[in-house]
Amino acid sequence: MDSRGSDTTTVTAPVRAPLASTAANGVKIVIVGGFAVGKTTMVGSVSEIQPLSTEELMSRASVGVDDISTLTSKSSTTVAFDFGRISLNEQTVLYLFGAPGQKRFWYLWDQLFAGTLGAVVLLDPRRLQDSWYAIDRLEHHGTPFIVAVNRFEPGGPTLDQLRDALDLPAYIPMVDCDARERSAGKNVLITLVTHLTDLYAETTP
Ligand SMILES: Nc1nc2c(ncn2[C@@H]2O[C@H](COP(=O)(O)OP(=O)(O)OP(=O)(O)O)[C@@H](O)[C@H]2O)c(=O)[nH]1
Ligand SMILES: [Mg+2]
Hints:
binds magnesium ion, binds guanosine-5'-triphosphate, alpha/beta, single chain, 5 helices
């Protein structure tokens, strides 16, 4: 069954948590990447409000399309987007949008990228090819991004090896993370904001 039009989607509304009165800069960030790389997990672990998520049970529409061979516990998938919020400091608030990962929902990405200042490409090093489309779309939109490697198991290729395989230029930061850990997710977001600040400084006389 196709998820669209189904009435089984679980939508959890964000808890209202007041913003600090000192918050002056709101920045829209998208977390994008292939199927089941941990996007919803990362938004949930770093958000200071209960994230809004649009999860639906996996359906037969994904059979033969999405590779779940490495994901024994995966039973639901994002059908629209995740939304969360994190205050990086007293002035800067990030609004986080987690993209859907199933290929049949990739058509939503272009709208999700509108107004985005920067993006995190989250990748599972065991399924590198799933991240190519995300990188391609971000480059097409001219959206600055960093790459965060969510290691589901120890070992695997080093960041340098992954950079080579992705043919990523040296100025694009790459970081290891565990999407389940708040501190790791926060470190990813700080890396992105630092990258955006550096890019802005380079282009401002
Ligand atoms: N072992 C391990 N499991 C993880 C990690 N990150 C996420 N998971 C699990 O991997 C599965 C996929 O995580 P999701 O957060 O739903 O992935 P997603 O990218 O949002 O998936 P889609 O929206 O369907 O594309 C879940 O069962 C998570 O609990 C990790 O760092 N290590
Ligand atoms: Mg998801």
